[in-house]
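Ticket #4471: complex job returned nothing on first submit. Input attached below:
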Amino acid sequence: MVRIFGPLVGLFFAAALLWSFGVGVVQQIREPDPSTAVKDFHRDPKEDVAFSFDGPFGKFDNRQLQRGFQVYKEVCSNCHSLKQIAFRNLADLGYNEAEVKAVAKQWGTKAKTFDAKTGEAGERANLPSDHIPAVYYAGTGNPPDLSLITKARHGGAHYVYSLLTGYTTQPAKLLKRYPDSATPDGLYYNPYFSNLNIAMPAPLTTDGQVTYSDGTKATVDQMARDVAAFLTWTAEPKLEKRKQTGWAVLGFLAAATALAYLSKRTIWANLH
Amino acid sequence: MSFPWANQYKPSNAFTSWLDEKLPLPRFVYNAIGGGYPVPRNLNYAWNFGVLAGFCLVLQIVTGVTLAMHYAANAGVAFDSVEHIMRDVNWGWLMRYGHANGASAFFVVVYIHIFRGFFYSSYKAPREMIWLLGVVIFLLMMATAFMGYVLPWGQMSFWGAKVITGLFSAIPLVGEPLQQWLLGGFAPDDAALNRFYALHFLLPFVIAGVIILHIWALHIPGSSNPTGIEIKTESDTVPFHPYYTAKDGFGLGIFLLIYCAVLFFFPNALGHPDNYIPANPLSTPAHIVPEWYFWPFYAILRAFTADFLFIPAKLMGVLAMFSAILVWFFLPWLDTSPVRSGHFRPLFRKFYWLLVIDVLVLGYCGGSPAETKYVLISQIGATYYFLHFLVILPIVSSIEKPQPLPFSITDHVLGTDAKTVAA
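Support reply: We reran it on our side without changes. The output follows.
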């Protein structure tokens, strides 16, 4: 039975597939898939920027993370939330307890309170245990929460860096080839963005836009690097611990596996 | 079955003697995976993967139960509860990365285990039942993995759930009500998330049950081996312990080295970035793709693009995708060659490697965007896939002239193989 029906079923599926294939080929010849502006002009993130946390031995550079936090606070946080991060987490960047308390207290948006007895809503200063307050944005576009942005985009920190430094005017070649793809009003051309036209205007525009306290020169390139590094920490705060643990685990496993190999050889020796 | 020369369990002290009378659990273990189970002496490292698959199941249950203690199955908080595990739970990141990569490791191991079975025709009599139970385990694994991927409630979780349950809507007449019944609504939401969580917790224990049957069925004929010829004498076998416990121990070490290298240094390499974006029913991702271990089947699903004999393309795709796995149930009766091992089947061997390449190509296409070129390649790949199992295997097994088989396992191992017998 199986040997009669099996081949029939197989030929049935094969016929259906080849039919689909034939229809697809004919369609492709008659009307090839049109090329699009995105296909031709989208760029992959720049990979030639080195970060301190790259590679299996990579570590965060706390001073860079603090600078990146400053860029987030003074620039990005006008539109973007960072809701997975609590003020207390900033201690990881090397701030001491008093500094963390001060950052929380001075944060622009206050923590919302609700008195369950009177039903009244109110506000109070943020505490280290509070998460960074949500940002509500009423303008064009939906600024995503940035907590996980480096894990939520191909290329991670390289993507963030490339996007921030990638704003440019729309190439004349693009407009010539795809006249319908001109960047609409209110959007900005950026070849690193998935559909080329992003609602966010270039956020880092001038050198010295923030004033770093550690003397680093705040060029656009430097600020983009720093905030990309900071957002890698917000997405993966346990990165250093993970890599360090990894080496200890691999070391132990290598030794255990070597012993397992030797005992296997000893046990099998009398058989060969 | 036990071979007459199998070692007998002897209780070593008064307590184990007492226990042996009341509850002979040590005897059971001894006969199952101890010195009382004679195994062919010539198993190669391809035979390690059954034990490794069992290890992966335990790994998934241990990490999974720990995650369950901190996870909240509610569409409003599920995503954040996963981030809570990653950030605030002690070693939570290890449990979660261990579990997510553990699923991938489980599938790698099981795919190698299955393709070992294909090459050595492990599905042939008298081992059909082991094979059938194995396919059941694989189907249960796929269901479990799919539901587990929904739990973090990211974009791919949501849209994956929508696409996969949407497959059922292709069934004529009852399709749409069936999809709504499965989801408990018109789109994935709390009802779906909660039932997927309950089933994701339950199914691994069902898998464990079927694994017990799988191993029970294995112990009746005993393990096959790379020559594919049956055990003749005691010298063909060695006791499972210490020989294969030692060999499996070394294999486990190598497996753990690779698994941990991925877990600690590339924990997100096998995942999709979109799943770090919270589920948003109003925003469809540019490319909806399942996890890598479903890619070959996803490619088959998408390969049907034109209606065929009044059957809608979507329904054809769904039928084909399920058939691609169901066809494995019929393998013992499709491949009728009396010779098991691919080492002695020159023609079969060529098609076997073609199948391996075919499945890899299908996997690559399944993970790529649904562009015409990938769809066209999938159509050729899927055609070969079905022809391989349903047409080529039956033909090859009847026209092929196998190479001569060794006289016995011992002769083959010790190279005293002067006298060979024709198949």
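Helices of chain A lie at 2-30, 37-41, 62-74, 97-106, 157-165, 172-177, 220-235, 239-268. Closing as resolved unless it happens again.
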